[in-house]
Design goal:
The structure is a single chain. The protein is mostly helical. It has two domains: 200 residues, Up-down Bundle (Growth Hormone, Chain: A), CATH 1.20.1250; 203 residues, Growth Hormone, Chain: A (Up-down Bundle), CATH 1.20.1250. The chain has 15 helices and two strands. A two-stranded antiparallel sheet has the order 1-2. A hairpin with a 2-residue loop joins strand 1 and strand 2. The protein is globular and about 60 Å long. The protein starts with 21 loop residues before the first helix and ends in an 8-residue tail after the last strand.
Length: 419
């Protein structure tokens, strides 16, 4: 398990972005993950351009998204055992080759090969986000700076899904979907190169006891299993919002709402992340996560009362204010609970849980899209599911060695707690 030192109350003297390697790692990860937001748009337009239907394009997008989510834990386990440089390099070369080959196959002529390439491209998506979460304790030994960097990291991840689709749509309109896939592949390669050539990534080494946790790895820990299940509800809320945004755009005949509504959530996430990372918070990590998740769930409730384009654009800012605190607290808890040698894989499982929940939220919201009120309540339902699981599993989420002391929690050397 992680053995981070006690968290002091004083804020770091230097801004987090001014610390060595931080900006490069953060920018590299964001650029390298842009294909995640660009490829689905390019797949839909490439399929339709080659004679396929929107249904086929949507199916390929679903395959890509699901494969990306499921591939992260596997690649995370390989990173924990073989290091970041080798695994990330092989992964990005594989996904780049797949994206470059896709336009050459032809959707209608070789549908099975096309689907296979899409799945392989998703499975080999480099684990940049999980790898970055594992690097923060190395790059920033100060726990206060770690929390601030994690909040900045989490808050900025939403920009991938705000900037990626419009960028892909613009490229498809001006140069075509083939060029869009080539640009996506190039951005992924560039971002991964920035990360793997950075000194912290090159020097990162697996823990001596990596590989001693059996087939289940971090899933051996009951608390982590509950945590991953809980955060799937958070992903459900995000996926449901995307569909609700499309339905509002159609209802008000304003296509821009499709992008503006998720962007409002991201703006709230950035603002909330800036506020959250400026100070430390009292209570155990599990209590902090439960409080943040509760506020996130409550903030969704006004969405059901949204009537008109302006409320639809503004109200998603409210849950966004608590999204970064929820995700950051979850990653801090993963860091505290993950058995030794499994941190990257554990972070990847959390990312996968959010991704799978997001896919489920999209599917359920799509079925309820013609019922505006019910569609608007689905994000709150997903967020409330997160809170429910956290409350039920609160005992298994306790971090061994934490003891209250004058309003804050101090962690001593933790013991193994694979329950």
């Amino acid at each position: 398990m992680s053995t981070t030192p006690p968290v002091p109350r004083s804020a770091p003297a230097r801004p987090v972005l001014a610390q060595r390697h931080v900006a490069r790692l953060l920018i590299g990860t964001l650029v390298g993950r842009l294909p995640t937001g660009m490829v689905p748009v390019a797949l839909i337009l490439l399929a339709s351009g080659q004679g396929g239907s929107l249904t086929v394009g949507g199916l390929l997008c679903a395959l890509y998204g699901l494969a990306s989510a499921l591939g992260q834990p596997l690649l995370g386990r390989l990173v924990d055992r073989r290091g970041q440089t080798l695994v990330t390099t092989l992964a990005v070369l594989t996904t780049t080759a797949c994206l470059l080959l896709l336009p050459l196959l032809g959707f209608t002529a070789h549908p099975a090969y096309t689907a296979g390439l899409v799945v392989l491209a998703g499975l080999s998506t480099p684990p940049l986000e999980a790898g970055l979460r594992a690097l923060w304790p190395v790059v920033l030994p100060d726990p206060v700076q770690q929390r601030a960097a994690l909040a900045l990291d989490t808050g900025s991840q939403g920009s991938i899904f705000v900037a990626g689709p419009p960028l892909a749509a613009a490229l498809c309109a001006t140069a075509g979907p083939t060029v869009t896939l080539v640009v996506s592949a190039g951005l992924g390669l560039l971002g991964a190169a920035l990360v793997v050539t950075a000194r912290p990534s090159r020097q990162w080494r697996p823990a001596p006891d990596a590989g001693t946790n059996g087939m289940l790895g971090p899933l051996r820990h009951r608390g982590l299993r509950s945590l991953f299940l809980a955060l799937a509800g958070t992903g459900f809320a995000l996926g449901a919002l995307n569909v609700w945004a499309v339905s509002r755009a159609s209802a008000y005949d304003l296509n821009m709402l499709t992008g503006v509504i998720p962007a409002a959530l991201s703006v709230g996430s950035l603002l909330g992340g800036a506020l959250y990372g400026r100070r430390t918070w009292p209570g155990s990590l599990a209590a902090q996560l439960t409080c943040a998740a509760t506020a996130f769930a409550v903030a969704w409730l006004p969405l059901g009362l949204a009537d008109g384009p302006l409320p639809a654009m503004l109200l998603p800012v409210l849950p966004g204010l608590f999204l970064t605190a929820t995700i950051t607290s979850a990653f801090l808890l993963v860091d505290a609970l993950a058995p030794a040698g499994t941190l990257t894989e554990a972070c990847a499982w959390l990312i996968a849980a959010v991704g799978v929940g997001q896919a489920a939220g999209t599917a359920v919201a799509g079925a309820a899209a013609d019922q505006p009120f019910y569609a608007a309540t689905l994000p709150a339902a997903g967020a409330l599911a997160t809170v429910s699981v956290l409350l039920i599993a609160h005992r298994s989420l306790a971090v061994p060695g934490w003891a209250p002391r004058r309003g804050r929690h101090r962690r001593v050397t933790p013991r193994t707690a694979c329950l």
